[in-house]
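Practice problem 4.
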């Protein structure tokens, strides 16, 4: 329970009938003995008569009863919408074909335009872009296993081979045949160095750096790249690539040095949008997942932003370590939270 001050963001949420501020999902009015959601359309109470609660259990334990108008003890309309869209996402993930907007909207019981707006507001991308992202995942998983490329392209939802062969190289970073053969005849430049953050491995295709990973065991880092491209030809005899590796090592040792490498980035349109914001975060600074979502114009897509950060395979150059929780907590990090903290502390020192 928290006493209220006039400048508090929670009070602003009540006045504007906005979603609740963190830690204050419900407010209670002492003079009426009723608790409400901040979005409740009932008369605005006086500030000194308000108490805030994180849960309905806390409010009722303090002797308050639920408002009959906004019904705070039931699922909110927003929660119901989120569950509806979560179910639609599962349907998209399980479908072997690209479902149309009209089909998805009919499943949701909404008009196509309304469904598209609600889906994008909650997920952060359109249903079509979400479906394309799921198709890309299925493509990467199935292509090495299926007996033929033709089987794969139809199995993952492509309607024509022309569309598949146009999109696939951008998704896979190479031709489908090369990817299916474990990057056979594909040259992957690879180098591993020891740094103050542990071992760092750098991998690159002819398009640019495709992976920068951190770890404590160099053999495990190398094995992971080999598992991804089992038939590739690995080498480190290219002077340009050696310069890229030197830039990565230098950026770890001296974070004030800018790192500007050509990147072979493989991700959905939404992920690449998030990663572009991450690359613009200044040295020594951090953004919350919410702030990143705001910057890409999708304030409701906080979870999708977190997923995009977790999907990043290019450490340091795409600084997902500079994204933290709304309360400043380090949250997760692909290469370990302790390493994330070490990177941030190092950057603050140099900044």
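Answer key:
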């Amino acid at each position: 329970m928290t006493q209220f001050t006039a400048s508090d963001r929670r009070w602003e949420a009540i006045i504007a009938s906005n979603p609740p501020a963190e830690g204050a999902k419900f407010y209670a009015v002492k003079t009426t003995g009723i608790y409400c959601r901040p979005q409740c359309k009932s008369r605005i109470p006086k500030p000194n008569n308000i108490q805030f609660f994180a849960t309905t259990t806390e409010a009722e334990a303090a002797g308050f009863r639920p408002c009959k108008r906004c019904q705070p003890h039931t699922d909110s309309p927003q929660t119901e919408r989120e569950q509806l869209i979560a179910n639609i996402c599962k349907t998209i993930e399980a479908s072997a074909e690209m479902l149309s907007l009209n089909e998805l909207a009919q499943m949701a019981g909404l008009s196509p335009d309304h469904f598209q707006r609600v889906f994008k507001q909650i997920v952060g991308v359109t249903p079509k872009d979400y479906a394309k992202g799921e198709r890309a995942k299925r493509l990467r998983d199935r292509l090495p296993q299926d007996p033929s490329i033709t089987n794969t392209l139809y199995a993952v939802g492509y309607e024509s081979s022309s569309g598949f062969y146009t999109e696939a190289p951008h998704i896979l970073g190479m031709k489908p045949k090369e990817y299916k053969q474990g990057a056979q005849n594909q040259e992957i430049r690879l180098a591993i160095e020891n740094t103050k953050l542990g071992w760092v491995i750098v991998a690159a295709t002819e398009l640019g750096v495709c992976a920068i990973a951190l770890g404590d065991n160099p053999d495990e880092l190398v094995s992971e790249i080999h598992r991804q491209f089992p038939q590739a030809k690995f080498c480190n005899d290219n002077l340009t690539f050696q310069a890229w590796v030197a830039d990565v090592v230098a950026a770890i040792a001296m974070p004030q040095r800018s790192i500007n490498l050509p990147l072979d980035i493989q991700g959905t349109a939404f992920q690449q949008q998030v990663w572009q914001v991450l690359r613009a975060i200044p040295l020594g600074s951090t953004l919350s997942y919410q702030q990143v979502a705001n910057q890409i114009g999708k304030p409701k897509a906080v979870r999708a932003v977190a997923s995009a950060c977790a999907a990043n395979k290019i450490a340091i150059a795409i600084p997902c370590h500079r994204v933290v929780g709304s309360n400043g907590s380090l949250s997760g990090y692909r290469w370990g939270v302790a390493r994330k903290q070490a990177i941030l502390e190092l950057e603050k020192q140099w900044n």
